[in-house]
C-alpha cells in the first residue's frame, strides 16, 4: 500500500522519523524501506477513524487495525494477504512500538499479537537445463529494445552477470544488490559479501565461468551504462545508479519469457529461486551440506536441511570448503554456466 495518502503532517513526519530511526539502528536497507511503508497503512487507518495524534492511539486500535488487515485483499495478486506478508506487518508493528517507546512519544502495552503459521512448502528450484535456457536467453534480442546495439549488448552482459551472482554465487537478493565492483577479487576468485544477513560477512568462491561473465560485464559493458558516473555498484541502471532488487527481478522475468519454454514460463520464479537452485545442484554434485551452508551464509544447518529433501540426496561427510569449485564443475556445464 505504498500510495496511501497521509493528510496529517505529524503522521508524515512520524513515518519519516521512524525510517531514520531504523537506519540509525543499523537495519538492512530493505527493512528501512519496507517497515515505514507498512506503518503508513496503520497511520492511514488512524486518520480514517479521526485519530490525528499518535498519543491518542491505544493498543486496541492496533488490534482492530490488524484484524482489518487480515481481511483486506492483496492489491497485486488478489485474494487474501499471505501469512508471511502478515508476519512482516506484525514485525513492523512491534518495531514501531519499540520506536515510539524509545523516543518518548508513546508507551504501549504488549501487543499480544502472535505470528501467523507460514506455509512450509519447499522453495521452487530450476533444473540445470532450465538454468542453461536462462543463460541462452541473454544472447537473444527482442523487439522491446529501442537502443543501439552497444546498449543492448551491455544489458545482455549485465543479465549474464546477474545470473553469475545470484545463481553462480548463490547470493540473497539484498546481498547481490549491494555488491560493489571492488568486492570481486579476480586473482583469488572470491566474492566478498559485505552486507550479508544479520550483518555477517563472508567470502564466496566464484567459478571461472562466472568470473568470465563478470569480467566481460565490468570491463567491456559496464562503462557504457556508467556514462560519466563514478558509482561503485556492480549493477548499474540506465540512470547510472545502483540497480534495485525489483528491477533485477524484472530482468529475470524477462529472461524467463525470452526462453520461450512453456514449462519454465509456468513457474513462479525470483532471485531466491536461483539461490535455491545452485544449492540443490551442488548437493546433487556431492557437495557436503556443511560446505553448502557456509557457501550460502547460513548460521546453522537447519536452514540448509531443506535441500536434502529437494534433491533426494543423502547428506555427505564434510569436506574442505575449497573443493566447492571442483564439485560444481563435476555437475554443471561451464560453457553454459
Description:
The chain is mainly α. The protein has two domains: 9-102, no CATH class; 128-331, Orthogonal Bundle (hpI Integrase, Chain A), CATH 1.10.443.10. Helix content is 53%, strand content 3%. The chain has helices at residues 9-25, 29-48, 59-71, 83-102, 128-137, 149-168, 173-177, 208-226, 245-258, 262-265, 271-284, 289-296, 306-311, 324-331, and strands at 184-185, 190-193, 202-205. The protein has a three-stranded antiparallel sheet with strand order 1-2-3. Helix 2 (29-48) packs across helix 4. The longest helix has 20 residues, at 29-48.
Helix/strand layout:
Layout: H1 9-25, H2 29-48, H3 59-71, H4 83-102, H5 128-137, H6 149-168, H7 173-177, E1 184-185, E2 190-193, E3 202-205, H8 208-226, H9 245-258, H10 262-265, H11 271-284, H12 289-296, H13 306-311, H14 324-331
Antiparallel strand pairs: 1-2, 2-3
Helix pairs in contact: 1-2, 2-4, 5-9, 6-8, 6-11
Amino acid at each position: 500500500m505504498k500510495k496511501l495518502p497521509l493528510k496529517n503532517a505529524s503522521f508524515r513526519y512520524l513515518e519519516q522519523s521512524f525510517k531514520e530511526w531504523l537506519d540509525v539502528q543499523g537495519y538492512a536497507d530493505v527493512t528501512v524501506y519496507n517497515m515505514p511503508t507498512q506503518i503508513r497503512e496503520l497511520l492511514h487507518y488512524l486518520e480514517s477513524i479521526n485519530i490525528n495524534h499518535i498519543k491518542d492511539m491505544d493498543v486496541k486500535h492496533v488490534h482492530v487495525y490488524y484484524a482489518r488487515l487480515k481481511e483486506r485483499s492483496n492489491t497485486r495478486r488478489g485474494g487474501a494477504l499471505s501469512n508471511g506478508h502478515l508476519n512482516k506487518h506484525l514485525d513492523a508493528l512491534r518495531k514501531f512500538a519499540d520506536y515510539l517507546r524509545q523516543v518518548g512519544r508513546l508507551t504501549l502495552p504488549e501487543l499480544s499479537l502472535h505470528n501467523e503459521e507460514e506455509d512450509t512448502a519447499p522453495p521452487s528450484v530450476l533444473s540445470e537445463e532450465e538454468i542453461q535456457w536462462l543463460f541462452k536467453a541473454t544472447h537473444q534480442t527482442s523487439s522491446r529494445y529501442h537502443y543501439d546495439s552497444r546498449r543492448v549488448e551491455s544489458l545482455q552482459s549485465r543479465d549474464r552477470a546477474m545470473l553469475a551472482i545470484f545463481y553462480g554465487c548463490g547470493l540473497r537478493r539484498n546481498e547481490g544488490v549491494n555488491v560493489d565492483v571492488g568486492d570481486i577479487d579476480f586473482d583469488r576468485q572470491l566474492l566478498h559479501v559485505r552486507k550479508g544477513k544479520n550483518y555477517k560477512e563472508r567470502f564466496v568462491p566464484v567459478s571461472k565461468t562466472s568470473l568470465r561473465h563478470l569480467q566481460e560485464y565490468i570491463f567491456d559493458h559496464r562503462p557504457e551504462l556508467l556514462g560519466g558516473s563514478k558509482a561503485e555498484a556492480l549493477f548499474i541502471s540506465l540512470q547510472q545508479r545502483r540497480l534495485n532488487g525489483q528491477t533485477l527481478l524484472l530482468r529475470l522475468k524477462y529472461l524467463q519469457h525470452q526462453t520461450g519454454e512453456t514449462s519454465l514460463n509456468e513457474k513462479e520464479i525470483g532471485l531466491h529461486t536461483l539461490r535455491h537452485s545452485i544449492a540443490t545442484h551442488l548437493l546433487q554434485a556431492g557437495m557436503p551440506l556443511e560446505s553448502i551452508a557456509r557457501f550460502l551464509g547460513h548460521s546453522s544447518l537447519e536452514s540448509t536441511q531443506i535441500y536434502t529433501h529437494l534433491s533426494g540426496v543423502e547428506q555427505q561427510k564434510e569436506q574442505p570448503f575449497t573443493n566447492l569449485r571442483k564439485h560444481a564443475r563435476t555437475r554443471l556445464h561451464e560453457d553454459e554456466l
